[in-house]
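Dear colleagues,

For the upcoming journal club I promised to circulate an example of a predicted protein-ligand complex. I picked one with coenzyme A because it came up in last month's discussion. The inputs are reproduced below in full, followed by the predicted structure.
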Amino acid sequence: MRDVAVIGLGVTKFGELWDRSFRQLIAEAGSKAIFDAGVSGKEIDALYVGSMSASRFIGQTHVAALVADSAGFSHTHIPSIRVESADASGGLAIRQAYLSVASGMNDIVVVGGVEKMTDVIGSEATETLATALDQEWEAFFGATYPSLYAMIATRHMYEYGTTREQLAQVAVKNHANGALNPYAQFKNPVSLETIVNAPMVAYPLGMLDCSPVSDGAAAIILCAADKAKKYTDKPVKIIGSGQASDTLSLHGRRDICTFDSTVHAAKKAYKQANLQPKDIDLAEIHDCFTIAEILAVEDLGFEKKGEGGKAVEDKMTTLDGDIPVNTSGGLKAKGHPVGATGVAQIAEITMQLRGEADKRQIKNAQVGLAHNIGGSGASCVIHILEAM
Ligand code: COA
């Protein structure tokens, strides 16, 4: 295995982008990343794309071919691979691309993530998202993403005394960060009071505890690390990559307040990087619901189990806290076009490690972690990156 670096990135704005198509979004992100890396199209050996459910959101399968074509690669005939792992599709596309470069099979690859979710009505988006849950034992009986995460939140409150206000603090922080991110879907700070009083979706999660339904795309360019300096002065090395799985359904878990997929993926990534949680300078965490960020802060080892709520209340995870979490605004405020999310997380960490995150820049950031979850925790992909 050889070292692999990120040498370029590109993101589109996230949001309800009714004037943009799926192919326009991924072509914009991809061309920005290629331009940022300064590579020519001819140097790219393969294309990987994470997309959860284009077949239902826009009626399109054969996404790999569509993306290669839209991005102008049909004439170079490079392999194009679509990767699906629910909302961890983007993170898994990066891992597959990373392995292909680490193995020596490819030198330079482009990895994209894209979803166009708002062309269907809200109830259809909810149903499509629920296809990532257990159809037979959860979705068939009416369970949805918000309702399952609501059960996790209720149990966490019961076991550890986590409060409604602590959940809301996650959204306060992430909206404040999103307000500093020009690409975020929501750029409005939101008060604790507004969040607690927002319309209820599934108790205790109100509308402002949920990530939104979003359109958007992100892309990065990966390169063999020994060739990276030819393209950029600021390559960012992937020093750890971990993936793990768990039962598809929530009721199969040993404990619904812990995502074992996160615990195991993190263990692998930390081991490869030869680092511990205390060595991480910032993290992009899969906060699809406010409780998900609290769980991950614990499962990644930043705080002890049960203390994630207190950590956000004590401002440990703000931009100037001990471990800044979701500097981009997270899924909550930046938006969550499901297939794009994992790639956008790596783009944010890369910006931070290159010192290019503008008003949300973390001082002296050297090591960042990206945490991408599929479903209600059945899949997890984690990457650790370091400035070279
Ligand atoms: N956070 C903040 N604002 C939100 C929002 C959210 N999650 N969802 C919608 N809004 C805003 C919209 O921008 C819109 O604002 P506007 O009136 O200024 O344009 C307004 O609220 C109404 O939007 P609408 O689309 O009608 O909301 P909705 O009631 O159909 O959907 C949720 C709200 C919370 C149900 C929906 O966002 C949702 O299902 N989120 C969860 C998605 C999910 O499960 N993702 C997978 C997670 S892993």
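Two points we might discuss: The pocket of coenzyme A is lined by residues 87, 122, 126, 129, 145-146, 186, 201, 207-208, 210-213, 288, 336 (CB under 6 Å). DSSP finds 14 helices and eleven strands in the chain.

See you all on Thursday,
B. R.
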